[in-house]
Amino acid sequence: MRLHEVKELFQIVEKKKLNDAVVMVRIAAPLIAKKVLPGQFIIFRLDEFGERVPLTVADYDREGGTITLIFQIAGETTRQFSLLEAGDSILDLAGPLGVPTELPEGTKSVCVIGGGVGCAIAYPQAKHLHSLGLEVDTIVGFRNKDIVILEDEFRACSDNLYLCTDDGSYGTKGFVTNVLQQQLEQGKKYDVVIAIGPVPMMKFVCKTTEPFGVKTIVSLNPIMVDGTGMCGGCRVTVGGKIKYACVDGPDFDGHQVDFDELMRRNGTYKRQEQECNLFRKEVQ
């Protein structure tokens, strides 16, 4: 298959900026759209010189043959991705990868929690669970009103939506854990809590649910290279055992995750990333 034929498979159908730092793209990927389930991810490369970047699938249209990706502009690859427009194509899109989210048998009531860009991953969870007829409460948190995303979409698939901002500029002032704690203390019964977002947020959601004995699933985002379990870069410690997020996850029992180790590992290349961003600004 020639290169131009491959690129036609992964054409951007729609692009939208959700805020100054977050972009949504809908891409033609019929084989992935046919199989992908909530919780799974893809790995993309923009071109033959590009790095491999994992992104959880935010939505999918099986009939239309498209998948939706939502990403934050955080480095050079996502910056370049954000400059593409509808009609442009990317070289590689591998997936679906990872294990779909699994709920305990008999689950009837679920609380889906998203933080920041993690809401892009929380949304397909809430949408799917709502479509199954489950009771879905959704708690989403952002730093301020200006970066709120997917509010209307969450309202459409939630029995109750609780929106929080750190500074109180929109919705309830405070963190998602404040709302969750209040709900649990008032006697709200959830069979499962699904938390997706920054690692510290997921850690404290788990600390909030643990005293109440509520099963809590988290979607982890460790450093990842190949996405097939061979490189070992995405290893995490769960229940005292080594797991690989790309093939064993990305979903895990949050009460068993060593979050402190995960945060240390995620910061391994922080200095190099800062130097790279500084160099890019100097040459622009």
TrEMBL record:
Q: How is the cofactor bound?
A: Binds 1 FAD per subunit.
What Gene Ontology terms describe what this protein does at the molecular function level? 2 iron, 2 sulfur cluster binding; flavin adenine dinucleotide binding; metal ion binding; oxidoreductase activity
User: Is Iron-sulfur set as a keyword in this record?
Assistant: yes
Q: State the Pfam families in the record.
A: DHODB_Fe-S_bind (PF10418)
Residues in the signal sequence = none
Top-level division of the source organism's lineage: Bacteria
- Per the database record, which ranges form the FAD-binding FR-type domain? 5-103
Give the binding site residues for [2Fe-2S] cluster. 231, 234, 246
Coiled-coil regions listed: none
Q: Which GO terms describe its biological process?
A: pyrimidine nucleotide biosynthetic process
* Keywords in alphabetical order: 2Fe-2S, FAD, Flavoprotein, Iron, Iron-sulfur, Metal-binding
Names of the cofactor(s): FAD; [2Fe-2S] cluster
Instruction: Summarize where FAD binds, as residue positions.
Output: 70-72
Give the protein name, as stated in the record.
Oxidoreductase NAD-binding domain protein
